Amino acid sequence: MKQNNLMNRNLLFLLLLLPCFVFAQNTITGTVTTDKGDTVPFANVIEKGTSNGTTTDIDGKFSIDVENLPATLVFSSLGYTTVEQEVTSAGAISITMGESAEALEEVVVTGLATSVKRTNAANAVSTVSAEELVGTTGQSTVDGALYGKVVGVNITSSSGAPGGGFALRLRGISSINGNNQPLIIVDGVYINNVEIPSGLRFASGANSGNEENAGNRLADLDPNDIENIEILKGSSAAAIYGQRGNAGVIIITTKRGKGGKTRINFRQDVGINKIQNALGLRPWTAASVLETFGQDAVDQFNATIAANGELYDYEDIIYGETGFITETALSATGGNAKTKFYLGGSYRDEEGIIKNTGFDRFSIRANIDHKISNVFDISSTTNYVRSNSQRSFTGNENEGGLSYGYTLAFTRPWVNLFPDAQGNYPNNPNFSGNPLFVRDNAINDDSNDRVIQGLTVNTKIYTDDINRIRFSNRAGVDYLSNETFVYVPETHQAQQGLGAAAGFVAQGKNSFTQFNTQSALVWDHDAMEGDLAFTTQIGTAYLFQDSNLINARGTGLAAGQTSVDQSANQTTDQFRSEEKEFGVFGQVEANYKDQIIGTLGYRFDKSTRNGDPNEFYGFPKASVAVNLANMDFWSVEAINQMKLRAAYGETGNPARFGATFTSLGASNIGGVIGQSVVGVKGDADVEPETASEFEVGLDLGLFQNRVSFEATYYKKNIRDLILTRQLPPSSGFTQETTNLADLENNGIELAVRADVLDTDAIKWNTGVQFYLNRSEITRLDVPAFAQPGAGFGTGLGTIYIEEGQPVTQLVGSIDGVLTQVGDTEPDFQMAFNNNLTLFNNVDISFLFQLKSGGENLNLSKFLTDLGQTTPDLETQAGQDRLDTPANAARFVEPAGYLRLREAAIYYRLPSNTVKGLFGEVVEGVKLGFSGRNLFTITDYSSYDPEVSVNGGAGLSSGIEVTPFPSNRQVYFHLNVNF
């Protein structure tokens, strides 16, 4: 009992002393303002030499407890100079922070967990801001919005259908059979940009799944959610991404919350779609009809003229719709010292230039940043997307009677193909399909449900005067559920000839899951009294991909039925894949007084797609930048930046899934199910394709960066390209896939930007970009060959892989001799953009894009020549072409152009007008008109010189077969800020 009383007295004594300890803490309060008198909200306040800190509130006020006095407080905030203030006694103080142009400088990615000021970067990293991306006009997709805005990036449309379809090539072709689309990362999440076949080819007779006019799934991302895009164009910049970086890397950062009161933005776009360039009707006369088709056709021609007063212009009837476009978006941003948020939702509904085509996308996003303590902070990005496409029937086929271009090539304009009073469509007497029946009754749709979730947790492990150590964990999931549906009624003309097999239906159920994680330990160290700074990072990265594609098809449909189970003949295909990759990386950056900046890095990767899934492959990187204008001896005031830079890096590209194994196929012998070798031999020793790139460059800034210039030369060698070669029958196989070739790309990139005028009345910013690329096959261990899926053989022309020649060359058989007839690679490309602001209220902008050189293989004209419907056949030149053998040389055309890619004019209501109309509720109103693809000057004779019959993959650019025509768009815009 006595012992318990002693313990109680000691406890009481401690409780009495506790307030003394508490009040022994020294509390410092105050307000942080700018040198103009404005408060600085959410500035960092740190007790120097400790991890003790806080932030100012919305009014710039702060309160911090320090254990001992005197103490030094460090005040910092983006855009302001850092201030150190010694405090000798508790109480209130006032702090003034000046604006810092250096602190506001743009930063670019240099590692998986670090960034660097652009003025110190040793690579040519292109960036596109939100204003540059969507500030001019409405954009359907992210890749389409990048047209003409990035030096060194070649973008080709693979379809004019709503929802897009684009091929992006960063610094040329990086693989022959493998992936050529860049790796895309959104807020740390690896994004799937797959094109999904629907089974349409089994009804149309197309050759392969990439001829089915599918869009790529980057279309699911709303461009208006994006804050900025960084593009790592070459291996020297993308080396830290290892085996995923061969085709370059696109890093997308979406909008995030900002502290202060909640701000709401409402945006409404209304627009129309029209065909960009109609080819027109051949100017038929009775004489030309007689000469071409005979007297019976003349009689029909005269009867149609007498009845209608004109011929049927089926091109205008099919492609001449005016598509209506609406997009509505609402977003909110705000937060406090602990939590910031961005919430956004949008709905886009875009009708196509063909009746019953369109694309709609509903997107909702929540980006949350939360500061748990001075040690931990967390960021979450959540995006749900529902998109739907109706892409109808265009592109290549083999007389399936579905593709509009094929059908129109042979349809004669005096034939009435409209339905009768009972709704019955007549058969087309000149081809296997009636395009009006297809437009009104056949279906080619897809729908997508997608969830993209990213999560980042940062931990500040240690902080003192010269060291800052943090640990970053990042994880992301991209889940895509896709459904495709193709339906051709049994009453379709081409189906009627199939008897009991008439009618076609295909239902696809496809799912894709990507999961990636990344952990990095980052150590910032200041040496030599702060003159030399080191940033070191080490970490791991993991990627898991799972896909499951199921396509069920049926022919012999019961009358009026659209389900596979209502068909007589049923087939189901399934493709499943599972891939895993693991990498370890390390990197050290050194910065001496912003004068000399060097980087060394290395990444080791292993992949289940390699021959040995447990073998690590190494990818080094090194770079140096020298800022001469920051040197002590520099005295040229007009030149405020002169940076010389050089960089080297290596990246990889694993073999296709399954290439390392010998494939087995199902067999049925006497009712017994088994497996047998299908003839393709795998290579267990296949190694990843590896690209090594060296780039050098010069960056200049003149007159306090009012004029900037960037020049880059690069040389990129891709070795161990994975190809398929034929094997002798005695081997027991027909083909083998292994490392067989090398490829080289060389290029130049130039960019100039200038603030020409900067006055109260007029602000004018302009920019010019120039870039070119040259490729060559430097090693080929197999005989030269026509690339499968990139042409139609040497008879009509094809991409041809040949040592010593460009990888983009077009070759055809001319009088029995294989001859290079063209090259799809442009001679060079340029872009010219201008932005003007008049009297702070009127914004005018326009973007021209120039492509010089490069040829297309126009096989749409081959078909219209066969059908005698090409518009120029009334001319002597057209008739002379008909007398020329139908070989590749006849259909190769120059594909250069000058295009007004974007143009807009906006008006911002003056603030006093807004206040007078809406009071304090509305902060700003902006109205505008804009357009995309407003005009094009070109010698190319078809719909668009940007074509790709085989989608965005492979080497298909520059080959045209009856595409979905590209369109011109005009918009009205309303933006309101609350």
Automatic annotation (TrEMBL):
Swiss-Prot/TrEMBL keywords: Cell outer membrane, Membrane, Receptor, Signal, TonB box, Transmembrane, Transmembrane beta strand, Transport
Signal as UniProt keyword: yes
Ranges of residues in domain TonB-dependent receptor-like beta-barrel: 399-770
Signal peptide (residue range): 1-24
Gene3D superfamilies linked to this entry: Carboxypeptidase-like, regulatory domain, TonB-dependent receptor, beta-barrel domain, TonB-dependent receptor, plug domain
UniProt domain TonB-dependent receptor plug: residue ranges: 120-249
Pfam families on file: CarbopepD_reg_2 (PF13715), Plug (PF07715), TonB_dep_Rec_b-barrel (PF00593)
Subcellular location: Cell outer membrane
Membrane topology per record: Multi-pass membrane protein
PANTHER family: HEMOGLOBIN AND HEMOGLOBIN-HAPTOGLOBIN-BINDING PROTEIN 1-RELATED, TONB-DEPENDENT OUTER MEMBRANE RECEPTOR
Family affiliation: Belongs to the TonB-dependent receptor family.
Name the UniProt record assigns to this protein: SusC/RagA family TonB-linked outer membrane protein
